[in-house]
Amino acid sequence: MSESDDRIVSIKLRDFQMLLGNYQYRDSRIDYAFKLLDDRLQKTRHWLKASREVASFTYDITEESLRAMVGLAASVCGVGIVEAEAYFSELLEDSDFLDKISKAKGECKYANELDETAKPGHRMFLYAIARIKKPKIVVEAGPFRGFGSVFLIEAIRRNDLDGFPGEIFTVDIMNAFDGDIVEACGYGAFRKVRVGDATEFIENFEEKIDIFLSETHYSGGYGKQLKAIEGKLQQGGVITMSALDDELYNFSKMFGRRYASFYTEAVNHIYQGQFCCVSY
Predict the structure, then answer these.
(1) How many domains does the chain have?
(2) Which of the residues 122, 190, 215, 235 has the least number of beta carbons within 10 Å of its own beta carbon?
(3) How many CB atoms lie within 10 A of CB 220?
(4) Which pLDDT does position 9 carry in this prediction?
(5) Distance between CA atoms of 52 and 268, rounded to whole angstroms?
(6) What is the superkingdom listed in this entry's lineage (predicted)?
(7) Whether residue 134 sits in one domain with residue 5
(8) Rg (CA), the chain
(9) Beta bridge partners of 63
(10) What does the pLDDT look like over 177-206, one tens digit per residue?
């Protein structure tokens, strides 16, 4: 038998062993696959019966996800874990504020698309960094129904009470502001609304931006916004995006900035969780 024939036989034998291995563990593999499918189906059944949400999902997150957000907020803002954790606790323990959001979601124009819950999920991160950094200017692109905006506005409102005034500009190409969650909470006066393209808004914006949040999801949107924001960020400014995006990574690399991402894993929900990325 030639050397090439030996090699062919060896390859065939490995293939056979792999097939045999799959056959040996077939039952356990099938059980595992169906267990995963059954879990998803159970969550789907519960969600379809109990929820009206079509977007901006609300859900509890795992303790591991919460710790990851606390740790990243501390790193982004240059503070210790204890200080960062205190702001997360401040939000989660404020039952009056969370109850206000729940009530507003039930009374706003989009109530038929929302659940009357105030589980902030990844939005806790936005609240915490706004509380720690005490920004003068926050720009939010793509606020949609205003659920994320409420947490940013509450952070800015509390900063103002502490003697650190700030402003938030929310810009969206769709005019969905009237009757949204922010209005229903009575927080409309705390934001400056702009209807139009976020990139054009940034290009014409004359003040330095401390925190820029983008939740826009149209093709090429992130890259255009980042190109526009170059030179518009305050020293130490933070950019956050509610998706993993190569553009923000490359932007951070090009300008010598730090980059990180985190994932908030949802608990007992059809929506598995949310990736977010940060440049600072």
Answers:
(1) 2
(2) 235
(3) 9
(4) 46
(5) 16
(6) Bacteria
(7) no
(8) 23
(9) none
(10) 776 889 999 999 999 999 998 999 999 999
Residues 15 and 133 in one domain: no
CA–CA separation, 54 and 203 (whole Å): 32
- In this structure, the answer to whether residues 173 and 43 fall within a common structural domain is no
9 and 79, same structural domain? no
Angstrom distance (rounded) from CA 277 to CA 280: 10
Contact 146, 114 (CB under 8 A): no
Please give the residue range of the domain that contains residue 15: 1-50
Tokens of 61: 């997150």
- What residues form DSSP beta bridges with 241? 214, 277
Q: Which residue has the higher pLDDT, 243 or 26?
A: 243
Q: What is the 3-state secondary structure (H, E, C) of 24-54?
A: HCHHHHHHHHHHHHHHHHHHHHHHHHHCCCC
Q: Are 70 and 84 in contact (CB under 8 A)?
A: yes
Query: Do residues 189 and 106 share a domain?
Result: yes
CATH number of the domain encompassing residue 151: 3.40.50.150
36-86: pLDDT as tens digits: 888 888 888 888 888 888 877 888 999 999 999 999 999 999 999 999 999
- Shared domain for 212 and 82, answered yes or no, is yes
Alpha carbon distance 265, 120 (integer Å) = 12
Instruction: Kindly report the length of the chain.
Output: 280
Q: What is the pTM of this model?
A: 0.84
Q: Could you give the CA distance from residue 174 to residue 182 in angstroms, rounded to a whole number?
A: 16
In the predicted model, what is the mean pLDDT of residues 23-28?
62
Question: Are residues 137 and 186 located together in one domain of the fold?
Answer: yes
Provide the H-helix boundaries in the chain. Answer: 3-24, 26-50, 63-77, 81-92, 95-107, 123-133, 147-161, 181-185, 198-204, 221-229, 246-254
Strands 273-279 and 233-241, how do they pair?
antiparallel
